[in-house]
Amino acid sequence: MTERDASRTLTHPEAREIRLEGVLHALSDPVRLSIVLDLAASAEDLACSYFDLPVTKSTTTHHFRVLRESGVVRQAYRGTTKLNALRREELETLFPGLLDSVLAAAAAEASRLAP
Per its UniProt record, what InterPro entries does this chain match (predicted)? Predict the structure, then answer.
């Protein structure tokens, strides 16, 4: 691994380090929840540039870091692109039904609040 490659390695918590309060905190923010909803709806990993978020680039970076450090997403570089994927299987093993319940509740709320 070159020095450049090492600087592009992102740290992720091991499954045993993921805590419920961290996951719930990450999912409690509307911007982060919208990221998770998009990832859940996609069969493929999504680049950070895919997301059209109503915040600055530095704030977007912060939101992705919170999601990664809480264990909700896994990020990896592919060339110069940072790809994002839900850690769905790990979250389901640790907290059965949690992610699906949050996604269903978010969909129900969106329907309820739609004009």
Answer: ArsR-like_HTH, HTH_ArsR_DNA-bd_dom, HTH_MetalResp_TranReg, WH-like_DNA-bd_sf, WH_DNA-bd_sf
Of 69, 10, 23, 75, the residue nearest 49 (C-alpha)? 75
**Which residue matches tokens 């069969």?**
43
Q: Which domains does the chain have, with CATH numbers?
A: 3-86 (1.10.10.10)
- Quote the tokens at residue 77: 């570089």
Q: Is the pLDDT of residue 93 over 70?
A: yes
- Report how far residue 23's alpha carbon sits from residue 75's, in angstroms, rounded to the nearest whole number: 16
Nearest CA to 10 among 101, 73, 102, 53? 73
pTM for the predicted model, two decimal places: 0.90
Check residue 83 and give its pLDDT.
97
- Rg from Cα positions in the chain: 15
